Amino acid sequence: MSAQHTKPTELAKEIDTALSYFPQLKDVPIDFKFKKDIKHSTMQAQPKFGSFLKHRSKRGYNIFISEKFKIAGKEFLTKHIPSEILVGWFGHELGHIIDYQERSKMNLIRFGLKYIFSDKHIVEAERAADTYAVRQGMSAYILKTKNFILNHADITEEYKNRIQKYYLSPEEIMHIVNELEEETKN
After folding, report:
1. pLDDT of residue 39
2. How far apart are CA 143 and CA 145, in angstroms?
3. What is the rounded average pLDDT for all residues in the chain?
4. pTM for the complete prediction?
5. Is pLDDT of 27 > 90?
6. What are the extents of the domains in the chain?
7. Which of 3, 96, 105, 137 could form a disulfide with 129 if both were Cys (CB 3.0 to 4.6 A apart)?
8. Residue whose C-alpha is closest to residue 100's, from 42, 156, 60, 153
9. What does the DSSP assignment read for 9-50?
10. Contact 15/141 with Cβ under 8 angstroms?
11. 3-state class of 70 per DSSP?
Protein backbone atom coordinates (compact mmCIF):
# COMPACT_ATOMS: atom_id res chain seq x y z
CA MET A 1 0.00 0.00 0.00
CA SER A 2 2.82 2.43 0.85
CA ALA A 3 6.58 2.64 1.00
CA GLN A 4 6.07 3.33 4.71
CA HIS A 5 4.89 -0.25 5.23
CA THR A 6 7.14 -3.29 5.27
CA LYS A 7 5.58 -6.74 5.31
CA PRO A 8 6.29 -10.40 4.72
CA THR A 9 5.54 -11.26 1.09
CA GLU A 10 3.46 -14.31 2.04
CA LEU A 11 0.97 -12.07 3.89
CA ALA A 12 1.16 -8.98 1.65
CA LYS A 13 -2.30 -9.48 0.13
CA GLU A 14 -4.03 -9.70 3.54
CA ILE A 15 -2.03 -6.80 4.98
CA ASP A 16 -2.76 -4.59 1.95
CA THR A 17 -6.46 -5.44 2.16
CA ALA A 18 -6.58 -4.46 5.84
CA LEU A 19 -4.55 -1.28 5.19
CA SER A 20 -6.98 -0.27 2.43
CA TYR A 21 -9.58 0.35 5.17
CA PHE A 22 -7.21 2.73 6.97
CA PRO A 23 -6.20 5.42 4.44
CA GLN A 24 -5.15 7.68 7.33
CA LEU A 25 -2.25 5.26 7.96
CA LYS A 26 -0.87 5.55 4.42
CA ASP A 27 2.15 7.61 5.49
CA VAL A 28 2.62 6.08 8.95
CA PRO A 29 5.68 3.81 9.19
CA ILE A 30 4.44 0.31 10.06
CA ASP A 31 6.59 -2.81 9.97
CA PHE A 32 4.71 -6.10 9.88
CA LYS A 33 7.06 -8.85 10.99
CA PHE A 34 7.03 -12.41 12.16
CA LYS A 35 8.00 -13.16 15.73
CA LYS A 36 8.74 -16.63 17.11
CA ASP A 37 6.06 -16.49 19.79
CA ILE A 38 3.74 -13.88 21.24
CA LYS A 39 2.38 -14.75 24.65
CA HIS A 40 -1.45 -15.11 24.64
CA SER A 41 -1.83 -13.58 21.16
CA THR A 42 -1.55 -14.17 17.46
CA MET A 43 -0.58 -10.57 16.70
CA GLN A 44 0.59 -7.54 18.64
CA ALA A 45 0.77 -3.85 17.66
CA GLN A 46 3.07 -1.47 19.46
CA PRO A 47 5.06 1.69 18.87
CA LYS A 48 8.62 1.08 17.72
CA PHE A 49 11.24 1.34 20.43
CA GLY A 50 11.97 5.02 20.99
CA SER A 51 8.74 6.08 19.28
CA PHE A 52 7.08 6.58 22.66
CA LEU A 53 9.10 9.74 23.06
CA LYS A 54 8.33 11.16 19.64
CA HIS A 55 5.41 13.37 18.68
CA ARG A 56 2.49 11.27 17.46
CA SER A 57 3.02 12.45 13.87
CA LYS A 58 6.59 11.04 13.94
CA ARG A 59 5.90 7.65 15.53
CA GLY A 60 6.50 4.34 13.82
CA TYR A 61 4.89 1.05 14.73
CA ASN A 62 5.48 -2.68 14.64
CA ILE A 63 2.83 -5.29 14.15
CA PHE A 64 4.31 -8.57 15.30
CA ILE A 65 2.81 -11.74 13.86
CA SER A 66 3.30 -14.98 15.75
CA GLU A 67 4.82 -17.56 13.43
CA LYS A 68 2.65 -20.29 14.91
CA PHE A 69 -0.93 -20.61 16.05
CA LYS A 70 -1.98 -23.40 18.39
CA ILE A 71 -5.27 -25.24 17.94
CA ALA A 72 -6.00 -28.09 20.35
CA GLY A 73 -2.33 -28.54 21.15
CA LYS A 74 -1.30 -28.72 17.48
CA GLU A 75 0.78 -25.94 15.98
CA PHE A 76 -0.09 -24.41 12.62
CA LEU A 77 1.74 -21.71 10.72
CA THR A 78 -0.11 -18.41 11.06
CA LYS A 79 0.37 -17.77 7.35
CA HIS A 80 -1.90 -20.79 6.72
CA ILE A 81 -4.90 -19.26 8.53
CA PRO A 82 -7.68 -18.44 6.02
CA SER A 83 -7.13 -15.11 4.25
CA GLU A 84 -10.28 -13.34 5.49
CA ILE A 85 -9.47 -14.27 9.08
CA LEU A 86 -5.99 -12.77 8.75
CA VAL A 87 -7.44 -9.58 7.25
CA GLY A 88 -9.67 -9.26 10.32
CA TRP A 89 -6.75 -9.83 12.67
CA PHE A 90 -4.67 -7.20 10.85
CA GLY A 91 -7.64 -4.81 10.96
CA HIS A 92 -7.84 -5.22 14.73
CA GLU A 93 -4.11 -4.47 15.09
CA LEU A 94 -4.43 -1.40 12.85
CA GLY A 95 -7.25 -0.30 15.16
CA HIS A 96 -4.68 -0.28 17.97
CA ILE A 97 -2.42 1.95 15.88
CA ILE A 98 -5.27 4.42 15.28
CA ASP A 99 -5.79 4.47 19.05
CA TYR A 100 -2.06 4.99 19.72
CA GLN A 101 -1.88 7.85 17.23
CA GLU A 102 -4.50 9.81 19.15
CA ARG A 103 -2.46 9.65 22.36
CA SER A 104 0.15 12.11 23.62
CA LYS A 105 3.58 10.86 24.72
CA MET A 106 2.66 10.68 28.39
CA ASN A 107 -0.75 9.21 27.69
CA LEU A 108 0.83 6.49 25.55
CA ILE A 109 3.33 5.62 28.30
CA ARG A 110 0.53 5.48 30.90
CA PHE A 111 -1.51 3.37 28.48
CA GLY A 112 1.35 0.87 28.12
CA LEU A 113 1.87 0.58 31.86
CA LYS A 114 -1.84 0.14 32.52
CA TYR A 115 -2.00 -2.53 29.80
CA ILE A 116 0.73 -4.48 31.59
CA PHE A 117 -0.75 -4.20 35.07
CA SER A 118 -4.54 -3.86 34.68
CA ASP A 119 -6.81 -6.59 33.39
CA LYS A 120 -9.62 -4.03 33.14
CA HIS A 121 -7.47 -1.83 30.94
CA ILE A 122 -6.72 -4.74 28.59
CA VAL A 123 -10.48 -5.14 28.09
CA GLU A 124 -10.83 -1.42 27.28
CA ALA A 125 -7.86 -1.43 24.88
CA GLU A 126 -8.89 -4.55 22.97
CA ARG A 127 -12.52 -3.49 22.67
CA ALA A 128 -11.38 -0.05 21.47
CA ALA A 129 -9.21 -1.64 18.74
CA ASP A 130 -12.17 -3.75 17.58
CA THR A 131 -14.37 -0.66 17.57
CA TYR A 132 -11.89 1.35 15.49
CA ALA A 133 -11.69 -1.48 12.93
CA VAL A 134 -15.48 -1.81 12.74
CA ARG A 135 -15.86 1.96 12.34
CA GLN A 136 -13.37 1.81 9.45
CA GLY A 137 -15.74 -0.55 7.63
CA MET A 138 -14.14 -3.86 8.56
CA SER A 139 -17.08 -5.41 10.42
CA ALA A 140 -17.40 -8.38 8.04
CA TYR A 141 -13.73 -9.30 8.52
CA ILE A 142 -13.80 -8.74 12.29
CA LEU A 143 -16.94 -10.91 12.58
CA LYS A 144 -15.36 -13.68 10.50
CA THR A 145 -12.29 -13.63 12.72
CA LYS A 146 -14.39 -13.80 15.91
CA ASN A 147 -16.57 -16.57 14.52
CA PHE A 148 -13.51 -18.52 13.34
CA ILE A 149 -12.15 -18.50 16.87
CA LEU A 150 -15.37 -18.94 18.81
CA ASN A 151 -16.85 -21.65 16.57
CA HIS A 152 -13.71 -23.62 15.76
CA ALA A 153 -14.08 -26.97 17.52
CA ASP A 154 -10.33 -27.45 17.92
CA ILE A 155 -9.49 -24.09 19.50
CA THR A 156 -9.06 -24.45 23.24
CA GLU A 157 -11.72 -23.17 25.61
CA GLU A 158 -9.01 -21.14 27.34
CA TYR A 159 -8.33 -19.15 24.16
CA LYS A 160 -12.06 -18.78 23.41
CA ASN A 161 -12.66 -17.53 26.95
CA ARG A 162 -9.88 -14.96 26.50
CA ILE A 163 -11.52 -13.70 23.30
CA GLN A 164 -14.92 -13.48 25.00
CA LYS A 165 -13.45 -11.67 28.01
CA TYR A 166 -11.34 -9.04 26.27
CA TYR A 167 -12.87 -8.39 22.85
CA LEU A 168 -16.19 -7.28 21.41
CA SER A 169 -18.72 -10.05 20.90
CA PRO A 170 -20.32 -10.57 17.47
CA GLU A 171 -23.52 -9.06 18.90
CA GLU A 172 -21.67 -5.93 20.07
CA ILE A 173 -20.06 -5.60 16.66
CA MET A 174 -23.47 -5.73 14.99
CA HIS A 175 -24.73 -3.10 17.44
CA ILE A 176 -21.91 -0.75 16.33
CA VAL A 177 -22.70 -1.48 12.67
CA ASN A 178 -26.37 -0.61 13.29
CA GLU A 179 -25.35 2.62 15.05
CA LEU A 180 -23.14 3.55 12.09
CA GLU A 181 -26.01 2.91 9.69
CA GLU A 182 -28.26 5.15 11.78
CA GLU A 183 -25.59 7.89 11.82
CA THR A 184 -25.31 7.83 8.02
CA LYS A 185 -29.10 8.07 7.66
CA ASN A 186 -29.22 11.23 9.78
Report:
1. 75
2. 5
3. 89
4. 0.92
5. yes
6. 5-185
7. 96
8. 60
9. GGGHHHHHHHHHT-GGGTTS-EEEEEES--TT-SEEEEEPTT
10. no
11. strand
